[in-house]
Design a protein that fits this description.
about 210 residues; transmembrane; ChloroindolylP_hydrolase; about 75% helix; 5-bromo-4-chloroindolyl phosphate hydrolysis family protein; two-stranded antiparallel ribbon; elongated; single chain
């Protein structure tokens, strides 16, 4: 779940004023002697202190898309989301209906995978290859096809690429959906076990026929 992160930021104006005070004070007290150099330094410090008093710390709020408690998992989810956004944009740019349907399936499964891992960060290890290789590779391939369409490339080679992409896209969409299903394997086992236990209890109490 996203959250707002607050950070206190020190204003830079006091530093600028302190730096400016140095040459100004040097005009009055040429820093060629040790006493004058000390006076110039003190003036700069005083200006910095006064400016700090009138320029308090600022609170900057930034929206953190994912806050799972693990920076590594948050970075992974951000990367997946960026690639899914890119896939969505490529889908809009690709006119092929078959490819478009497969890409929609990929994106839907990918968004669901992100939601599952966001709620259960310990499952991030199960999707490492999906996040680091499979999804980026799909975006790379679809980008290449979108460039072919954009440049109006036609011919036997282009047609072969499209055919292979269509076949690969269907397989990849199914793989993404299987990846999502695999994330629920532990829950499915727990539910199955709970059902068996409940059924045994009901039978022992003669509450079933």
């Amino acid at each position: 779940m996203s959250k707002w992160e607050e950070k206190q930021v020190r204003p830079v104006l006091p530093l600028y004023l302190a730096a400016l005070a140095w040459p100004v004070a040097s005009l009055v007290f040429p820093p060629y002697t040790l006493p004058n150099l000390a006076i110039v330094a003190v003036c700069s410090v005083v200006v910095y202190g006064v400016a700090r008093h009138f320029c308090p710390m600022r609170v900057v709020r930034t929206l953190v898309p994912y806050a799972t408690g693990s920076e590594e998992v948050d970075a992974m989810l951000n990367g997946i989301t960026a690639n899914l956004d890119a896939l969505h944009g490529l889908n809009d740019a690709i006119p092929d209906a078959q490819l478009s349907r497969a890409m929609e399936r990929m994106e839907k499964a990918g968004r669901s995978i992100v939601a599952v891992v966001e709620g259960a960060p310990d499952k991030a290890r199960q999707i490492e290859r999906f996040a680091r290789y499979y999804l980026p590779e799909v975006v790379k391939l679809m980008s290449a096809y979108a460039n072919l369409e954009k440049n109006g490339v036609r011919g036997e080679n282009a047609e072969q690429i499209v055919t292979e992409l269509r076949r690969n896209a269907e397989t990849t969409a199914a793989a993404f959906e299987n990846q999502l299903d695999a994330l629920y394997s532990a829950e499915a086992l727990d539910i199955s076990t709970d059902i068996e236990v409940l059924d045994s209890i009901l039978k022992s109490q003669n509450l079933t026929k």
